Amino acid sequence: MSKTQFTEGSAPYISRRSALQAGAGLALTGVAGVRWAFAADKPAMGTWPAGSQGSTVYIGAAVPLTGAYAVQGEDERKGMELAIEHINSNHELMKKLAPKINNGVLGKKVGFLSADSAAKPNQALQVEQTFINQNKIVAMIGSTSSAVAVALNKFAQREKILYMAGISGSNDTTGKDCVRYGFRQGVYGEMCANAIGPILVKQFGKNRKAAFMTPDYTYGHTTTESVRDFLVKQAGWTMVTNQVSPLGTQDFSQYLTNIANAGADFLINVNWGRDAVLSSQQAKQFGLLPKMTLVLPYQIPFFAREAGVDISEGVFAATDFWWTLEDQYPLAKQFVESFQKKYGYRPEWGAENGYMSFAHWARMVTEAGSFYPPDVIKQWEKGEPVPHLLGDFHYRPQDHQYVRPVIIVRGKAKKDMKNPEDFWDVVEVVPGDKVIQAPDAFGCKLGDYT
User: Fold this and answer.
1) Distance CA 34, CA 38 (A)
2) Cβ distance 423 to 304 under 8 Å?
3) Pick from 137, 145, 151: which is nearest to 170 by CA?
4) In this structure, what are the phi and psi dihedrals at residue 427, rounded to the nearest 5 degrees?
């Protein structure tokens, strides 16, 4: 496991040894003299109550900082880091998202621990297990690979520790692999397919031929299935080939050769991270682009910057967030300005995802008035409107999915960019309740609370 990063906003640094001593249950008095009593009818579970008996509670993040998803993982981590800073300092934006924070949550500062998952499930599990053993974390976050999200879902349910998926595009995360202890606030394959599908049909018509490029794991397979099903059933499109490649592929020539011979009008690239960048660049080198129209049904943060504006120009993509939404939504503007001030660039949607996941955790804990996991879960499951940068939406109690909008963007030509980060035009903000499937459609069966 890579070196752990510690962030705790304005809180004093607490050594690992001190955290362990607090976790042993020796101290029952928190900051500002707040005393914590644990009811006898609430048995110890997971890291509760040990993890919340000291002056600091910890959240552990397993994010890819190396490998094919490293750029996106680092952006997501920065969003989490900013959120912790805002929770611990009563930042104006965080107070609007989680009004009951008070220089932390429930009298505690929040400590942020992060380490590299390399987008590998086993490594992510090792990261979180270490944080549990050494720091008694009260919640986990991070995936960026849905294979990691699915693995951490199961781990969270077993260990009885709250888990927020972060970036996870697979239908299965809140579908057949859902758990009582897992929550997702970001959009995913089915929602994106149902949002971008009508726009593709309106723009390009019916009965078209599409070649798909799919990463060989749960995100890729479920997203490709959702996009294909919409286009085939609603518009008579044909999937002429589906080229499935392993995560971390460097040379896509064999897959692109097959696509070149398939007679497609469209290249629907479901690959993500560096895989999406390399495969799109190589498709251009092969002469497939712009002969074929490129579509990104689940957009990649930093795609335009890394792949090049000559490739992203005119491309339709579905995403969680784009920074120019600040022109329409005041909270989005606060987030973009705060992030840019701290990190020197405008946030991509990975950062927005990390920030909002932590904001919602802080809200649920403070509204519940408890760190006891079932209490926090039941607060989430009330289904009440929960603020987001783009409005107020709700989590569905049946599958723990946040019903938030999908953003459709289209790549700008270089001549139309107003600044070096002005890569996309927002085409439409599609309401989440218009594109989400029924709660039981993908086989979600939440587990027990205890």
Assistant:
1) 13
2) yes
3) 145
4) -85, -45
Distance CA 28, CA 22 (A): 9
Is 57 within 8 Å of 110 (Cβ atoms)?
yes
What string of H, E and C letters represents the secondary structure of the chain?
CCCCEEECCCCCCCCHHHHHHHHCCCCCECHHHCECCCCCCCCCECCECHHHCCCEEEEEEEECCCCCCHHHHHHHHHHHHHHHHHHHHCCHHHHHHCCCCCCCECCEEEEEEEEECCCCHHHHHHHHHHHHHHHCCCEEECCCCHHHHHHHHHHHHHHCCEEECCCCCCHHHHCCCCCCCEEECCCCHHHHHHHHHHHHHHHHCCCCEEEEEEECCHHHHHHHHHHHHHHHHHHCCEEEEEEEECCCCCCCHHHHHHHHCCCCCEEEECCCHHHHHHHHHHHHHCCCCCCCEEEECCCCCCHHHHHCHHHHCCCEEEECCCHHHHHCCHHHHHHHHHHHHHHCCCCCHHHHHHHHHHHHHHHHHHHHCCCCHHHHHHHHCCCCCEEECCEEECECCCCCEECCCEEEEEECCHHHCCCCCCCEEEEEEECHHHCCCCCCCCCCCCCCCC
pLDDT in tens, 198-246: 999 999 999 999 999 999 999 999 999 999 999 999 999 999 999 999 9
Pairwise CA distance, residues 149 & 218, whole Å: 10
Instruction: State yes or no: pLDDT of 393 exceeds 90.
Output: yes
Burial (CB < 10 A; 0-12, 13-18, 19+), residue 398, is middle
Q: Which among 153, 215, 219 is positioned nearest to 181, based on CA atoms?
A: 153
Single pTM value for the model: 0.91
Pairing mode, strands 162-164 and 139-141: parallel
- Beta strands 5-7 and 109-116, pairing class: antiparallel
* C-alpha angle 409-411-415 in degrees, rounded to nearest 5: 135
